Amino acid sequence: MATKALITGINGQDGSYLTELLLEQDYEVHGIIRRASTFNTGRINHLYQDPHESGARLFLHYGDITDSTNLGRLLNEIAPDEVYHLAAQSHVRVSFDQPEYTGDTTGLGTTRMLEAIRGSGAKPRFYQASSSEMFGAVRETPQTELTPFCPQSPYGAAKVYAYWMTVNYRDAYGFHASNGILFNHESPRRDPRFVTRKITRAVAHIREGLQDKLYLGNLDSKRDWGHAQDYVRAMWLMVQQDEPDDYVVATGETHSVREFLVHAFTHVGLNWEDYVEIDPRYLRPTDVNLLLGDASKAREKLGWEPELTFADLVTAMVDADIRLLEEQKSGILGPESRAVREFG
Ligand code: NAP
Ligand code: F7E
Predict the structure, then answer these.
(1) pLDDT in tens, 217-266
(2) Which of 12, 51, 64, 121 is the most interior residue, by most CB within 10 Å?
(3) Is 155 an active-site residue?
(4) Does pTM surpass 0.85?
(5) Which residue's alpha carbon is at the smallest distance from atom 28 of ligand 1?
């Protein structure tokens, strides 16, 4: 029998790459999507399978991590072997505008999932999408699993709560529950409201003369940026271990937003300083100025290594945005989503 995984946040950046990875390994994958006024399965449309066809291994279910009765029912119905809890309000800047909602989804959402598992009587292994934002005003550099948390945003604070609830269910109820403390990871599937994709998308538009300026906030901020495809592999490896544990996942290199700009604009022969302006709207009440992870534990215990470098990441994202724009200009839009037609 195929191993069954349940993924919350399946249509997000990480959910889409993780689904690809699990389907390649012959898992049966169940994903929770929430009802929105427009269909939002763009990142997983290429994976969609008609659930009526024999051999289908990807199944989508409506649900929401603010709805505990729904989560409990899905846990009972699906009886997964592994749960990857990725759903969250994941935007740090937005968490200052919506601190209560962020606490509800990003923090309490994890408790609801853990409680749904406990109530179901099943014993799936559990992965919690923890974040380097928990380190906040960093107490040491580089950051490891032992570095104290000092969150600087409602998002970071909610993730700290979720981290400790995961540890608590491991200690109190013997859950196989692990925290992946993932540093920033990006890809061509990154939402354009995060700085990397905002930049690479703008580079593609500026190159075509479709955009004059790119407005940004704090350019001095430094991040340890990796590729999402590498990072979902680390999630899976954590869940496969005999013992649950917590792991930092990072590249061990840090770069400023300014350096990202230099790489992205230079890749197409442009000078970023001709286009970028600062807009205070993108500054945060408190920002995290420096993140740099030490993933030695993940390397030693999981055998995990990132395969893609910072330069690979930037060029892959710029090239993908150029291709996307060319497809849009020539009217080649992606194949109509079968999910849109069939998931009414
Ligand atoms: P993302 O692209 O923003 O995806 C978030 C997912 O959560 C989406 O599928 C979203 O669905 C879903 N979601 C949000 N609120 C929900 C709700 N109330 N009920 C059900 N689903 C809901 O994020 P990501 O980059 O893939 O990150 C995955 C997880 O890792 C998140 O928990 C994030 O906080 C965490 N994380 C990310 C990074 C990073 O650098 N990417 C680093 C560390 C940790 P909709 O499409 O409907 O909005
Ligand atoms: O900001 C600065 C901004 O929004 C990175 C999420 O996946 O990673 C992500 O959170 C830096 C910050 O990501 C703009 O101030 C400058 O210092 O791309 P970001 P983030 O806040 O690091 C962590 C690990 C997560 O867990 C989160 O879910 O870039 N910055 N100008 C800007 N950022 C944005 N978004 N927009 C700007 O215009």
Answers:
(1) 999 999 999 999 999 999 999 999 999 999 999 999 999 999 999 999 99
(2) 12
(3) yes
(4) yes
(5) 86
